[in-house]
Specification:
heterodimer, A: 519 residues, alpha/beta, five-stranded mixed beta sheet, 15% strand, B: 132 residues, alpha+beta, four-stranded mixed beta sheet, 46% helix, elongated, binds flavin mononucleotide, binds iron/sulfur cluster, binds FE2/S2 (inorganic) cluster
């Protein structure tokens, strides 16, 4: 039986993968072909999606991007035996975009059937968990600490330290909460791992539970991710059925339960304390810290709250050892990071690599410049709260400290590329607008500041006393940066101020002196 | 409470006064508390929406690929603005901020169906499909 792989990943589905799968299924029944369809995750080469692969004696042969309506032509070209076709790519693993990556967290994504436990085990699944079961909680925590893993959700807090706090806090019940809310524009790694390798998420959660003596885990994701929700729910069901979770982990360990929860369209619910409020069924408003969630989190119990990429990086750390993981990376940014290249870019997608490439290497080298063919003008790194970097800063190495040193942040490692048609004044306006729409409303600098900021930028756009209004925006940014309770209000100044600093010509108009705002 | 609200809205298309009353009684919360939750989240609505709901991504990656122009032509093609429902109740047009499709931008979602690489040609097809 010939296996044909058609991704179920949202990238592919949004471009017709379901229709393509239907077409092929119909052809299989009609012509009684000896073939079956496997719905895999995505390898992350988004510009080639939907990317079909067929298993041949010479290995998997890829074709892409395929559009609905192309199946008949493909079959005629001998696609099922790897035949020639204008869209034949060959072995996708040999494609430089994939071959040059260091895939640790995403090593199975795109290759396996995400809902096949057999596939998962065949490619090293549950090796980390098996090792963890034989260790004490302190040993597991130590291993994660030694790996140098820092939270991939944005703040970069050491994961081992967080787990240690939860382990050492006494309570009748403890929780693992996975933050898969991923609201940042330009990011899709969380979604891709849920759709492409959900058992890795489950394995990571169970290890976190063993390490901290937590017995229940929640996955919180967003309603905008219908495919991910379906796949993860099915994977949880299969994991229960196989006895991997439930009354006893893998039949020998303690109990561990997992439940999935879906948000309702509120960006701020990605903030960890707002997420906990939402999980408890309340408005997703940010809590003041302390107490830390590690001390008083879900239902006031000690709670590990980690981004999903932090959690899914744990199985391989346990399987192959902390040292192995730590050897990748640079400075205090250890291991690999799934960089998400998006926006106006030729080769957009997910690129997992060790920290330390420069921004220019990523945008021009890997991304291949803009999709429009025009010059790159700005790159926003780290989502809607991240700074816009101009070409002059393309030598910045991709790591937490280097970006911070240049008033930027890597956040969830998403990059959005803009060509020279971008109007940075408009982007600054959007940053305030987004903050105003998504503010949880708890503190004044954010709630009022965003609205006033939006008004002021609109005045600049209208040419109404630009210099005064730019000064006002700068003042507002300062207030928001230092007076906000959480990073939604606190980081909105990053996109705004970086736009003003690096692209002053868009704010002052060509006839106005550029230095005016500073006077 | 979120799973309950999702279920009710999934079944009835909105969270009405009755639903709020029911939840407050069942969960032993004040109606104001329940209402506070319902109004906080963008997904929940008190008014019925159109037979179709078209959500268009307005966030940065989609902007970089011309989503503003696409959004304008959708407004024109459907004859409504964002946040509105057409007079015949056929469609509601909403903005979303990122569907995780940022590398195949611009993107949209029609009744839960994802759409990537939106173009003027696809807009015309979409508008036609929605009118049916
Ligand atoms: C407004 C706002 C939105 C956030 N959104 C997310 C998100 O979508 N996903 C995420 O993992 N962390 C998000 N964070 C960061 C979390 O608060 C928290 O730092 C993270 O979940 C911790 O996990 P980590 O240590 O594994 O990174 C957000 C923070 C803020 C202030
Ligand atoms: S900064 Fe904004 S989102 Fe954060 S707590 Fe204050 S009002 Fe809420
Ligand atoms: S910004 Fe539009 S899908 Fe992410």
């Amino acid at each position: 039986m010939i296996r044909v792989f058609i991704p179920l990943d949202s990238f592919a589905v949004a471009l017709g993968a379901d229709e393509i799968a239907d077409e092929l299924a119909l052809a299989i029944t009609r012509s009684d072909l000896d073939a079956t369809i496997v719905r895999n995750g995505s390898h992350g080469l988004a510009w080639l999606e939907p990317l079909l692969e067929v298993e041949t004696p010479e290995g998997r042969i890829a074709y892409g991007p395929i559009e609905p309506g192309e199946i008949a032509g493909l079959l005629k070209a001998g696609f099922l035996t790897g035949g020639q076709h204008p869209k034949r790519i060959g072995d996708i693993q040999k494609h430089p975009y994939l071959a040059n990556q260091t895939r640790l967290t995403f090593r199975r994504c795109g290759i396996i059937d995400p809902l096949s436990l057999g596939d998962y085990r065949d490619l090293g699944g549950f090796e980390g968990l098996k090792r963890a079961i034989a260790m004490t909680p302190h040993e597991i925590v130590q291993e994660v600490t030694d790996s140098g893993l820092r939270g991939r959700g944005g703040a970069g807090f050491p994961t081992g330290v967080k787990w240690k706090t939860v382990l050492e806090t006494e309570a009748d019940r403890k929780y693992i909460v996975v933050n898969a809310d991923e609201g940042d524009s330009g990011t899709f790694a969380d979604r891709m791992i849920m759709e492409g390798d959900p058992f890795c998420l489950i394995e990571g959660m169970v290890i976190a539970g063993l390490a901290t003596k937590a017995t229940k885990g929640f996955i919180y994701t967003r309603s905008e991710y219908p495919v991910a929700i379906r796949i993860v729910e099915e994977a949880i069901r299969l994991a229960y059925e196989a006895g991997i979770i439930g009354k006893s982990v893998m039949g020998t360990g303690p109990a561990f339960d997992i439940e999935m929860r879906v948000g309702a369209g509120a960006y701020v619910c990605g903030e960890e304390t707002a997420l906990l409020e939402s999980l408890e069924g309340k408005r997703g408003q940010v809590r003041a810290k302390p107490p830390l969630p590690a001390h008083k989190g879900f239902m006031d119990r000690p709670t590990v709250i980690n981004n999903i990429i932090s959690i899914t990086s744990v199985p391989i750390i346990l399987a192959e050892g902390a040292e192995q993981y730590k050897n990748f990376g640079t400075g205090r940014s250890r291991g690999t990071i799934p960089i998400q290249i998006a926006g106006n870019v030729k080769f957009g997608g997910l690129y997992e690599t060790a920290f330390g490439l420069t921004l220019g290497e990523i945008v021009d080298g890997i991304g291949g410049g803009t999709a429009s063919g025009r010059p790159v003008r700005a790159v926003q790194v780290g989502g809607p709260l991240g700074a816009y970097f101009p070409r002059e800063l393309f030598d910045t190495p991709f790591d937490y400290e280097a970006f911070a040193a240049r008033d930027g942040l890597i956040g969830h490692a998403g990059l959005v590329v803009f060509d020279d048609s971008v109007d940075m004044l408009k982007q600054a306006r959007f940053a305030f607008e987004f903050c105003a729409i998504e503010s949880c409303g708890k503190c004044t600098p954010c709630r009022i500041g965003a609205v006033r900021g939006l008004e002021s930028v609109e005045k600049i756009i209208a040419g109404d006393r630009p210099a005064e209004n730019i000064a006002l925006v700068e003042d507002l940014c300062n207030t928001m940066k230092f007076g906000s309770l959480c990073a939604l209000g606190g980081f909105t100044p990053y996109p705004v101020m970086s736009a003003i600093t690096h692209f002053p010509e868009d704010f002052h108009g060509h006839s106005q002196p550029v230095r005016e705002a500073a006077e | 409470m979120l799973p309950i609200l999702h279920a009710l809205q999934g079944r009835f298309g909105l969270i009405g006064e009755e639903a709020v009353r029911l939840i407050s009684a069942e969960l032993n919360l004040s109606r104001a508390e329940v209402y506070g939750v319902v109004s906080f989240y963008h997904d929940f609505r008190k008014e019925p929406h159109g037979r179709h709901v078209l959500k268009v991504c307005r966030a940065e990656a989609c902007q970089s690929m011309g989503s503003d122009a696409i959004a304008d032509s959708l407004e024109r093609a459907l004859g409504i603005k964002f946040g509105e429902t057409s007079a015949d109740g056929q469609v509601t047009l909403e903005a979303v901020y990122c569907l995780g499709l940022c590398a195949v931008a611009p993107s949209a979602m029609l009744d839960g169906r994802l759409i990537g690489r939106l173009s003027e040609a696809k807009v015309a097809l979409l508008a036609e499909e929605i009118r049916l």
